[in-house]
Amino acid sequence: MSEFELSATPPKSVRTRGSQRSIIRELLKLASKPDVISFAGGLPSPKSFPVEAIEKATDWVLEHHGAQALQYSSTEGEPALRKAIAERETELSAPVEADNIQIVSGSQQALDLIGSAYVDEGSVIAVENPTYLGALSAFKLQRPTFLTIPTDEYGLNPDKIGPEFRGIRFAYVIPTFQNPTGITLSEERRKKLAEKAREYDFWIIEDNPYGELWYDHQPPKPIRCYAPERTLTLGTFSKVLSPGFRLGYVVGPKTALDPLIVLKQAVDLHTSTFTQLISARCLDTGLMNAHMPAVRELYKTQCSCMLEALEKYFPQGTSWTKPDGGMFIWVTLPEYINTDEMMKEALDRKVAYVPGSAFYANEPELNKMRLSFVTVPPEKIDAGIKILAQLVKERIDA
Ligand code: PMP
């Protein structure tokens, strides 16, 4: 028996008192039981990890830069990695220098640092409706007011951005293969969002973890290309190399990165030197480019498999997004079906999803769910979707 009461804590800070554990994390505990078919997690497929290539890169780093890899390093990040990322970003989007890259411990850390650096209690920040749950959790620590950007089937609608956006701290957006919807914003809307940001004088926080996971064609260029002077773009190695590395980066004007550096010094001094050097080696040797086609093919096949199953089993009155990349499909059920409530029964029948309500900053929509298709084998995707369809049908018939 522990000598401590389970509820014992030192007096809690205001920040902690207001925050709750992520329901996805709580849910994942149940969903990760081996007999559950889980469409709930946001994990990349373990099949996508280039284990042998990382082993080679690791050996090379230890052989050539062993002492450096195991030592403390600078808060900004390892020069070799910043340079390699700057070259890659220049090639994929718009020109940047190594000085415009801040290395972080996963893009989740960037969200937290940006919240701490740029949001005060009561500050207004704009988010898509729905948006990434982890961003909401990070920003909520600062107790902001959320303004939601109206969204339609093509993603956020910049035409609906009006004078109420003047003076907000920033708009946080995921324009490519969005989490949770899988939707990609068109080039036209990206340009228009950049124009609106200038017109109403706000910054854009562009989160781009999925941009490389396209299936048949590359997505439009990042929004940073259209408003580089007022955009911070977040990148990560989590979906292209390894989430276990906890390695991400922020691209943007150096002046806007400086406050993040000051905070990061206090938070963790710097991101792991070891994984930074291994990743730099993976970029320099072309591993990343060589590795991506197999990941894209895998995810495309998995996505088609889930779309086929939805088509086959889901009843009339339901609809879903058809992503061109990424990891998620967003399903809409008839308005009277509450996916929060349905979740318990789904788990009883050994299937898991994430209820849509988790992804709204303000008023939640209760008839949505996020399905991740990347980690479940095809035959189980079919079986799991069949069970979910049955649950939905029972509610439509009732
Ligand atoms: N942003 C979005 C939109 C995400 O989906 C995720 C991961 N699920 C993250 C940020 C965090 O990624 P990481 O910290 O692993 O880079």
TrEMBL record:
InterPro entries: Aminotransferase_I/II_large (IPR004839), Class-I_PLP-dep_aminotransf (IPR050859), PyrdxlP-dep_Trfase (IPR015424), PyrdxlP-dep_Trfase_major (IPR015421), PyrdxlP-dep_Trfase_small (IPR015422). Coiled coil: none annotated. Pfam families: Aminotran_1_2. Keywords: Aminotransferase, Pyridoxal phosphate, Transferase. Its cofactor is pyridoxal 5'-phosphate. CDD domains: AAT_like. GO terms for biological process: alpha-amino acid metabolic process. Residues 50-386 form the Aminotransferase class I/classII large domain. It comes from the Bacteria. One of its GO terms (molecular function) is transaminase activity. Homodimer. Belongs to the class-I pyridoxal-phosphate-dependent aminotransferase family. This is Aminotransferase class I/II-fold pyridoxal phosphate-dependent enzyme. It comes from Parasutterella muris.
